[in-house]
């Protein structure tokens, strides 16, 4: 079975490609917007991409020709942008999935498409009420709106497609743009008894290990039957963001102070509470999260130590 992973040199894409490669009978084809030879594609531990393609800009006929040549049985789209200007955010997260669907309809209409969406599509949750897949989507910023547009392009494509709506990923390879990755970097350059300055950590989020996301993406790509249009992939529990900071501090042996007087990103401040209902993923994929938040944070901290978990570049 031939599986094309878009964003294969990134965070979630790297984990997904690695997990798929471990499955017997699966040949993984990796694609990234950066050439495999580019230093910016990530450290040597990251699996290289077989080809370079940028979904934000590639013409649909060119992408269709590429897909026709590769003949994938499944495509896993892990390409995404969490930062950048409006053109980048909408190009990768909205235009990209729409272009991919158009190209697949032309070149490989029988291929399974697995697209990684985001919890940001939901917007704020209500404390004590997990978000199921039929919950209204009310994104509070451009990132969430662009991801929702991408989801709508996929679910309305008529293809054999599923969107995995991923909540807050954590674990080895967490990129510097994420809170866990940023905190780990701050702790590495701060004295054990120093001060780490962060924003407000009182919001509640649902964290999921990137390796569990990879397991879900693999299960979705290889599932023999059609799947629901959208499935939540999360830990299934709302945790204070403060738990991430304190968990990393314990893993690092940090004895100093975590100061919450720093600036809080507007997108984070607007969403005080989120928790996913993951029963649909359990039913459709036989999937449940395996890693606890504490395990994910410990492995994130250990990833650069000899024998520690492999890290990947930011997607």
Please tell me the overall pLDDT: 91
Order of helices and strands: EHEEHEHEHEEHEEHEEHEHHH
Gross morphology: globular
Number of strands: 12
CATH topology: Rossmann fold
CATH superfamily: NAD(P)-binding Rossmann-like Domain
Number of domains: 1
DSSP summary: helix tally = 10
- Determine the strand fraction and express it as a percent band: 15-25%
Structural class, please? alpha/beta
Quaternary: single chain
Second CATH tier, the architecture: 3-Layer(aba) Sandwich
Radius of gyration: 19 Å
Protein name: NAD-dependent epimerase/dehydratase family protein
Pfam families: Epimerase (PF01370)
Family: Belongs to the NAD(P)-dependent epimerase/dehydratase family.
Domain NAD-dependent epimerase/dehydratase: 3-234
Architecture overview:
α3 links the parallel β4 and β5 (112-118). The chain has helices at 11-21, 60-70, 86-107, 142-155, 179-188, 210-222, 241-252, 266-269, 279-285, 293-302, and strands spanning 2-6, 27-32, 51-52, 74-77, 112-118, 161-166, 168-170, 195-197, 204-209, 230-233, 238-240, 257-259. The chain has one domain: Rossmann fold, CATH 3.40.50. It is 36% helix and 17% strand. Residues 36-47 and 310-315 have low confidence and may be disordered. The chain is globular. The chain is built from ten helices and twelve strands. The two termini are 25 Å apart. Strands 3-2-1-4-5-6-10 form a seven-stranded parallel sheet, sandwiched between helices. It has a three-stranded mixed sheet with strand order 7-9-11. α2 crosses α3 and α3 packs parallel to α4 (142-155). With 315 residues, the chain is an alpha/beta fold.
């Amino acid at each position: 079975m031939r599986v094309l992973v878009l964003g294969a040199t990134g965070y979630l894409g790297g984990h997904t490609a690695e997990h798929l490669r471990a499955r017997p009978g699966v040949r993984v084809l990796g694609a990234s917007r950066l050439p495999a030879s580019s230093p910016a594609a990530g450290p040597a531990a990251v699996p290289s991409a077989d080809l370079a393609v940028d979904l934000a800009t590639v013409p649909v006929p060119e992408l269709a020709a590429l897909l026709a040549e590769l003949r994938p049985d499944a495509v896993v789209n892990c390409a995404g942008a969490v930062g950048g200007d409006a053109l980048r955010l909408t190009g990768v997260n909205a235009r990209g999935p729409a272009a991919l669907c158009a190209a697949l309809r032309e070149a490989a209409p029988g291929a399974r498409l697995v697209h990684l969406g985001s919890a940001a599509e939901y917007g704020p949750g209500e404390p004590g009420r997990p978000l199921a897949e039929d919950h209204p989507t009310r994104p509070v910023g451009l990132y969430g709106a662009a991801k929702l547009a991408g989801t709508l392009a996929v679910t309305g494509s008529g293809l054999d497609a599923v969107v995995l709506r991923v909540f807050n990923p954590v674990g080895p390879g967490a990129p510097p743009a994420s809170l866990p990755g940023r905190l780990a970097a701050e702790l590495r350059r701060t004295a054990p008894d120093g001060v780490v300055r962060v924003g407000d950590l009182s919001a509640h989020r649902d964290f999921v290990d990137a390796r569990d996301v990879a397991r879900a993406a693999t299960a979705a790509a290889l599932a023999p039957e059609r799947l629901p249009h959208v499935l939540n992939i999360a830990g299934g529990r709302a945790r204070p963001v403060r738990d991430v900071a304190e968990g990393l501090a314990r893993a690092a042996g940090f004895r100093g102070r975590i100061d919450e007087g720093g600036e809080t990103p507007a997108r984070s401040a607007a969403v005080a509470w989120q928790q996913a209902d993951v029963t649909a993923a359990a039913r459709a994929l036989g999937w449940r999260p395996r890693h606890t938040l504490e395990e994910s944070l410990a492995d994130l901290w250990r990833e650069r130590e000899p024998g520690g978990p492999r890290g990947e570049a930011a997607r």
